[in-house]
Backbone:
């Protein structure tokens, strides 16, 4: 992957209850102050290999101007 994964779009990203560590990765099982992909890169030296796009980001959005609900 040429660029850092967008954690907010990943199925493994969760919001934590802890205000000191508000970002969490369920795949790697940690919470942190930083975005999880930054922590993985800093600790392992490689980009996160577990990124999986959430389903609602996979849908291709096509604007249909003939759709009556738009008018």
Residues:
């Amino acid at each position: 992957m040429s660029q850092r994964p967008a954690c907010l779009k990943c199925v493994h990203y969760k919001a934590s209850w802890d205000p000191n560590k508000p970002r969490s990765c369920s795949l790697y099982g940690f919470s942190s102050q930083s975005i999880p992909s930054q922590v993985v890169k800093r600790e392992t030296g490689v980009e996160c290999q577990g990124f999986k796009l959430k389903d609602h980001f996979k849908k291709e959005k096509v604007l249909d101007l003939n759709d009556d609900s738009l008018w």
Notes: Strands lie at 13-15, 23-25, 30-32. The chain has a mean pLDDT of 89. Residues 1-53 form one domain.
